[in-house]
Amino acid sequence: MTRLLFIFGTRPEAIKLSPVIRYMKSRPNDFAVRVCVTAQHRGMLDQVLNAFDITPDIDLDIMLPGQTLYQSTSRIISGLEPVLAGERPDMVLVQGDTTTTFCSALTAFYAGIPVGHVEAGLRTGNPRHPFPEEMNRALTTRLTTLHFASTAWAADNLRAEGVAEDKIFVTGNTAIDAVLYVIEALENGKLQGLGNSIPLDPTKKLILVTAHRRESFGEGLEQICAAILRLAGREDVQIVYPVHPNPNVTTPVRRLLGNHPRIILTDPLSYVPFVDLMRRADILLTDSGGIQEEAPSVGKPVLVMRQTTERPEGVKAGVAFLVGTDPDEIVRKTEELLGTVFAKQSPYGDGQASGRIAAAIGAYCE
Predict the structure, then answer these.
(1) What SS3 string covers 66-111?
(2) Paired strand residues for 31
(3) Which pTM does this prediction carry?
(4) Which residues are catalytic?
(5) Where in the chain is the domain with CATH 3.40.50.2000?
(6) What is the pLDDT of residues 150-186, one digit of tens each?
(7) 187: Cβ contacts below 8 Å, ≥ 6 apart
(8) CATH architecture label of 2-172+351-365
(9) 205-337 in CATH: which number?
(10) Cβ(218)–Cβ(304) under 8 Å?
(11) Which of 96, 97, 228, 273 could form a disulfide with 136 if both were Cys (CB 3.0 to 4.6 A apart)?
């Protein structure tokens, strides 16, 4: 039996690892699964764990108000040292590009434990965009044993950096596994969606916005808000913006967009209501990475409000559009796409990534 330790700390990691954890746990004769959370993002992490009915075995609870990258990095590494010494798994599984991802891979490397990296190979080529994620994932690659790339493009990035062919596995993205699981559960009543928590007007086109990335802080976020305000000037739209709790986001957003009759600013939504809102929207505007993958799987166009994207497959497929933070471009492309009907198609996966990851790990560890 293969002993696996999943380590993660943020909402996006939890979303993308939860279907893998559930798949592994459904095969108790093959895998002994343990879950450790750093709680790099406390409340937003717990929302996802509840949706997927996952209880961590170890909770480091490292989050501090206003913590810096220096503080979170040092606390994660020091917290994981005794965990790995006690658990001694056959493999550590990490996901993506967070501070928890890099610190977990580094700590496992120090302990001589193989690392499996879910969603490996994403690159922009610019170490400052996105920051610190681009460097986190590049460094994690150097520490990883098995690389689970979501797409052929990501796998090509790994090959270009010298990763051995027999250590690269194109699996599809586990975000699609997660979205399809939640949508099916919403449709059969197993999970509850928005309900009446947000007063949506069915006569208006719904624009769903998320913007919170570190590189957008300051002028970039103010430009995004300017574009949203202009779009809200249309009588036929309604805008919903779940606002990240970071003061660098919530302060300017509430100052610039508060009290507009066609803009609804909410606290961050838990994962299930957010998926429900996403499938009701006409278009998504985001600087998030995961939403670029999720939106096409529910048939929604997505504008990427960043200068670069490490997920170019959606752009090439014509389901995602890179618009930066220029208000004119955001408004122009949003108005062009409003009302456009998109098929449910995703270049990022078919919902079977978890099984492919399990097969690769099983073969390696046998």
Answers:
(1) CCCHHHHHHHHHHHHHHHHHHHCCCEEEEECCCHHHHHHHHHHHHH
(2) 2
(3) 0.85
(4) 97, 119, 133, 212, 214, 244
(5) 2-172+351-365, 205-337
(6) 999 999 999 999 999 999 999 999 999 999 999 999 9
(7) none
(8) 3-Layer(aba) Sandwich (3.40)
(9) 3.40.50.2000
(10) no
(11) 97
